[in-house]
Amino acid sequence: MKTDFIRKPLKLPSDDSVREPLAYGGGPAVIPEDVRRTNFPIITKEDVIQMLVSIQQDGDQVVDEFKEAYRHYVGANYAIATASGTSSLHLALVGVGVQPGDEVIVPAFTFIATAQAVVAAKAIPIFVDIDPITYCLDPVQAEQAITKKTKAIMPVHVHGLPADMSALRRLTDKYSLRLVEDASHAHSASIHEQVAGSIGDGAGQSLMADKNFPVGGEGGIAFFKEKEDYERALHFLDSSGIDYRMSWIAAAFGLSQLDRLPYYDAIRARNAAYLTNALAETKLFSGPLVPDGYKHSYNMYRVKLSPERLGLADLEDYRVKDAVQQLINAEGVYAREWQNVPIPGHLPFKNRKGFGAGYPFTLSDRKDFGYDLVRFPVTLNMLRNSLTICRELRTPIEYERIQAYALAFKKIDANPHIIRELVERGDNLKVLYERDARLG
Ligand SMILES: Cc1ncc(COP(=O)(O)O)c(C=O)c1O
After folding, report:
1. What's the pLDDT at 67?
2. CA–centroid distance, residue 299 to ligand 1 (Å)
3. What is the pLDDT of residue 6?
4. List of residues 6+ apart from 439 with CB closer than 8 A
5. How far is CA 25 from each of CA 22, 134, 307, 412, 419, rounded to the nearest angstrom?
6. CA atoms of 107 and 126, how far apart (whole Å)
C-alpha cells in the first residue's frame, strides 16, 4: 500500500553537490537512486476510512455528496460527476449546444482527449497554435480560425495555468460562440480568484488518479453556468442511454482527498516557487511565467531551455534538450518530454477515420482541416526547447527534495562543455515531432 510516510528521507542537500562531477560521467547523483521514488496520489488512512464509511451508504448519494462538495469548492452553478475527464468534456460540449458537424477550436498543444472529446460530440476539432509564454491557446490565432461553422472555443489550462479567458470571452461574445474550459490540469487554479471550471459556459475536468485532485482510479466532472446547458447535458444522457456515471468508490475517495486539496496545493505552490527562483539563477533554465492575478496549479512544471544563454546557440536546440534530459535524469530528476508531437499530428487526426467511414469528419465540406504541423510553429518550438516535470512535482514533496532538484539543474548549468560533448557525440537523433506521437 502507498502511504504518505517517507520511509527513507533524503540527506540534507548541500550546495557542494553543484561542483561535483556529473552523475552521467560517474559522479555522485544529487538524488541517489534509492530515494528517488515519489508517490502519487497520496493515500492516507482518511481515504481508507472514508471508503469504509461510504460503503455503508447509498452509492448515488455518495456521488451526489462528492459532486456538490466539489461544485461548491469550484464555485460552479451546476455539475455532473462523470466516469472520466473525456466524458466530462463530451458532456460539456453537448451541454453548451455543440451539434454534429460543428467546429470547435482547441489548442494544438494539449492531451489528445481534448480533441477526441470534440470528435465524441461528432464535431470537428480545429487546432490553433499556442501563446509562447503561457503555452495556452493563442486568442489572436483563435479569432483567425473562426468560421461560420464554429460553435465553441475550448481552451485548455495547460499544466495548470489558466488560459487567457477574458480575451477568449471577448471573442465568444463578439461571434456568439460558447466558451468551454478543459480544466483537467487546473484543479484550484484561478484567475482573480475565479476558479477554473467556473469561468466558461461549460467545463470538463479529469479527476483521474494522476491529476492534482484525484478520485479513486478514473473520474471526471462537467460544470455549467446556465441551467439550460446543464439540462441539455442531462437530457443527452437520458435520451442516449450512455452511462457516464462516476463510480461511488471513486467519489468516496474524492471526498476525503478534497479535504486535503488546499494543503497539497499550498505545498505544490511552495515547491514550484522555490524551483522557479532557483532556475532564475541559472543561464540555461527558466520556469513558467504566471501572469498577475493568475493562480497556477502546477499539475506539470515545464522548464524552458535557452541554449544561447549558455554559449550553445550553434547546436541544434532539440539535441541540447535531449542531452540535458540524459544528464538531469542521471542526477535523479525525472524531467521528460510531455507530448512530442502537436495533437493534429497524432494518428486519429492524420487519418481522420473517426468512428469509422470518416465520421464525423465526413460531415465537413472542408478540403483542408488545417492539421499540417507547419501551422503550429510556436508549439513546435516549445517542444524542441523544454522539458517537463510531472508526477515528481505534482506530489507534495518534502522541502529537501525540491532543494535537491534545484541543485541538480544548477549542476547541469555549470557544465556546458559536457552538454556540448554529448550533443557532438550524438547519433542521428530525429527531431521529436518527427518521431511517432506518444500519448503523454
Ligand atoms: C488536458 C486533458 N484533457 C483531458 C484529459 C482526459 O481525461 P481522462 O483521462 O480522465 O479521460 C486529460 C487526461 O490526462 C488531459 O490531460
Report:
1. 98
2. 12
3. 64
4. 111, 112
5. 5, 35, 21, 12, 12
6. 8
* Any atom of ligand 1 within 6 Å of the Cβ of 172: no
Cell digits for 29?
547523483
What's the N-to-C CA distance of the chain in angstroms?
A: 26
Is the model's pTM score more than 0.90? yes
How high is the pLDDT of residue 1? 44
pLDDT of residue 11: 87
Closest CA to 76 of 66, 68, 64, 65: 68
Ligand 1: does its nearest atom lie under 6 Å from the Cβ of 379? no
156 touches ligand 1 (CB under 6 Å): yes
Per-residue model confidence (pLDDT) at position 329:
98
Does 84 contact ligand 1 (Cβ within 6 A)? yes
Distance from the alpha carbon of residue 361 to the mean position of ligand 1, in angstroms: 22
Distances (CA, A) of 271 to 83, 143, 251: 31, 36, 28
C-alpha cell, 381 = 518550438
Side chain identity at residue 333, one-letter code: V
Q: Which atom of ligand 1 lies nearest, measured to the CA of 182?
A: 3
**Which atom of ligand 1 lies at the shortest distance from residue 156's CA?**
1
- Walking along the chain (440 residues) 10 residues at a time, the average pLDDT comes out as 65 94 97 89 92 93 98 98 98 98 98 98 98 98 98 98 98 98 98 98 97 94 98 98 96 96 97 98 98 98 98 97 98 96 97 92 96 98 97 90 97 98 90 91
**Per residue, what are the HEC states of 63-130?**
HHHHHHHHHHHHCCCEEEEECCHHHHHHHHHHHCCCCCCCEEEEECCCCHHHHHHHHHCCCEEEEECE
Q: What is the DSSP letter of 431?
A: P
- Confidence at residue 237, expressed as pLDDT on a 0 to 100 scale: 98
Instruction: Compute the C-alpha angle 269/272/109, nearest 5°.
Output: 100
- Residue 111: the pLDDT is 98
206 Cβ closer than 6 Å to some ligand 1 atom: yes
- Do the beta carbons of residue 252 and residue 62 sit within 8 Å? yes
**Residue of 184, 247, 299, 300 to test ligand 1 pocket, by largest number of atoms within 8 Å of CB:** 184
